[in-house]
Design goal:
2 copies of one chain form a homodimer. By secondary structure, the first copy, chain A, is α/β, with parallel strands linked by helices. Chain A has 2 domains: about 140 residues, Aspartate Aminotransferase, domain 1 (Alpha-Beta Complex), CATH 3.90.1150; about 240 residues, Type I PLP-dependent aspartate aminotransferase-like (Major domain) (Aspartate Aminotransferase, domain 2). In chain A, strands 2-8-7-6-5-3-4 form a 7-stranded mixed β-sheet, with helices on both faces. In chain A, strands 9-12-11 form a 3-stranded antiparallel β-sheet. In chain A, strands 1-10 form a two-stranded parallel ribbon. In chain A, β5, α9 and β6 form a beta-alpha-beta unit. At the A-B interface, α1, α3, α4, α6 and α7 of A face α1, α3, α4, α6 and α7 of B.
């Protein structure tokens, strides 16, 4: 019989997707260039030319049977070695290729990491505001996602709530810095304190508590902001990465899990990932995409537009009197709505052709997310609509 | 804590992989050209040039943000429409794009199909000899794979055993024709009888019993062999396809599930697949690979070498007195070993630098698999080794 739980999931339509569809439909009426669509977190700058050149060169010159042949189930060894070397050089780690497991983006990475370290009955903690797809990633494994209430002062960590929720049932803690949706970056102080508490509780409970660090925005960090590498602070860390945002390749589904070499059973965990894949039918990202990203590991798309857009929006939103934590990275900003009900506020914004996402979908009430991965020219044109929204309605 | 079941799976090393590693090691000693390596089912002919040309053309001329952008979670709509049209033209079906779900190869397709129609406590039946990866695909969902003993006379279906095992607990039946490892193709008579029995039992038990049809070898069918499309025989069919073998693209991980439009809740099932993906972190095959295969749906690599190799081997093996069902397709042949213990026979074969896979791994005893996706010149050179093996040892 058809499995009810997946059938039921079809009912819960994504708020972000509905808003995006509204923006597209409105675009057909008035021209999409006139819709200030801040709904989707889709990169707005092209992949580095070198990626394209490498792809073409391989297609033209490599033996097609080798190029398109099976990858080993953990990923192509030379690719894994290069990723380890790049992470070691940047963050002073000591990974080898054996600590790297290639995945279909951060989604695949998190899905594997969660299955390695938790099962039915376990809890995984994350912090509001958080990416809503964590719910299916975790809840469909039998483990349960529990959300620690937000630190709304700075969108760092509400440690009082965290310490209370970090019970013996918690198998892992899932963080996301730089953060979607708040744009904030966890400070060294935050990560140190997090690591200290988790280490203490590991000792107290007598079992490992893993840190799963979701880092698709790792490369989008603004000037003057310190963005420490979470795995440096806590040995039992599984870093989950995607090249989607750094290289503007979201559709090519490429990323990895990097298991801290000092983690309990580190090489066993990466090896286990390939066993998990056998059950989920994942069986490695495409060979050609693995080989191509390995040649551009230390490049990024031109990400400067995101900082430009952030500065324009932060200035305007604060000038309009909205409370707003200044983003340290990503392409999101997360001001407080001028009324308690963020859903109602976003409905009003639609009248000004401003498409904003209410924070309810991210596990916190009263805020809105603007995904400013759009042309700066459009951001500038949107300011008048923002002013009218705030002045006319409030 | 680290999850034991995946840790345990690491112990069970694949026999096929071990043999392949032996062949590689032996190749380092005597030159790989002198090792008659029949272990791995890896395509030995290049992808059609048009695929390469399409990839290069897209990389050179398409807007990179569109080309590498997110695919919808069911796959790119235009790609799904083209696959539906191609299947309709070839097999007289009436699919629309809504019945197609894009996957990372047949592994991904089966993983999704199984999760759609079964859960813990359910049984899925398959027929020996069968592809051993079905075990993790199914057993890790909580359902249980049960293997119907082989029809060793013709490697069609042992219907007596099937009827006995087709109890009320069976949620789905998984077939693979053309078959790995036997190379046989289910006849219209076999598929009609299978469909009749399953239809009767659906009525008797009052619930659906789905047919999951694993078809990566669909395009490798030899002259004069009728290879009917299983979905034509039974409405509740989910066809699982991979382009790995037909296009020689195993590393690019691209395939689909096609749900028969007359299946119970057909469009709901394909939609459900995208919800399953949210949990497994699959989230679509890469956009560029989807777009490229859509341009070569009705092409294949030059598959003629497989038939040439099959004829040479079939003639020699039968001349040597081995019992052997003549393959109708694939790139496998499955003769009976000249002694009861196929593992012992394959050990002896190693002395002649012949790398054969014992049938125990495929759920039947006393046979061996030869994967003849190698150069014809090497097949011809291997005959002397085969003769020596049989004449010296038996």
């Amino acid at each position: 019989m058809i499995v009810q739980k997946y059938k039921d999931m079809l009912q819960g339509k994504s708020v972000i997707r509905q808003l995006s569809e509204f923006a597209t439909a409105r675009g057909k009426e008035i021209g999409y260039e006139n819709v200030f669509d801040y709904s989707l977190g889709n990169p707005s700058v092209p992949v580095p030319q070198k990626f394209t050149d490498v792809m073409i060169d391989m297609l033209q010159h490599r033996n097609p049977m080798e190029l398109h042949g099976y990858s080993q189930s953990l990923g192509i060894p030379a690719v894994r070695d290069k990723i380890a070397a790049s992470l070691n050089a940047r963050f002073g780690m000591n990974y080898t290729g054996n600590h790297i497991f290639m995945t279909t983006g951060a989604a695949g990475a998190i899905a594997h990491a969660v299955r390695c370290v938790s099962g039915p009955g376990d809890e995984i903690l994350t912090f509001a505001p958080y990416f809503p797809e964590y719910n299916p990633y975790i809840n469909l494994t039998g483990a349960a996602l529990k959300v620690v209430p937000a630190d709304t002062a700075a969108f760092q960590i509400n440690f009082d709530a965290f310490e209370e929720m970090l019970t013996d049932r918690v198998a892992a803690v899932l963080i996301n810095s730089p953060n979607n949706p708040s744009g904030t970056v966890y400070s060294s102080e935050t990560l140190s304190r997090l690591a200290q508490i988790m280490s203490d509780r590991q000792r107290q409970y007598g079992h490992d508590i893993f840190l799963i660090s979701d880092e698709p925005y790792r490369e989008i960090v603004f000037e003057g902001v310190d963005s420490p590498y979470p795995s440096k602070f806590y040995d039992n860390t599984l870093s989950c990465y995607s090249f989607s945002k750094s290289l503007s390749l979201p559709g090519e589904r490429i990323g990895y899990v990097a298991v801290n070499p000092a983690c309990t059973d580190a090489e066993l965990i990466s090896a286990m990932c390939s066993q998990i894949s056998r059950g989920t039918g994942h069986n490695c990202p495409p060979s050609i995409i693995q080989l191509a990203v390995a040649e551009v590991l230390d490049l990024t798309a031109d990400l400067s537009v995101y900082e430009t857009n952030m500065r324009i929006l932060y200035k305007e939103l604060t000038a309009l009197g909205l409370e707003c934590v200044k983003p340290g990275g990503t392409f999101y900003i997360f001001p407080k709505a001028p009324e308690e009900d963020a859903v109602a506020f976003c409905e009003k914004a639609k009248k000004y052709d401003l498409i904003l996402v209410p924070s309810d979908t991210f596990g916190v009430k009263g805020y809105v997310r603007l995904a400013y991965c759009i042309d700066t020219e459009k951001v500038e044109r949107s300011l008048e609509a923002l002013r009218r929204l705030i002045k006319m309605e409030y």
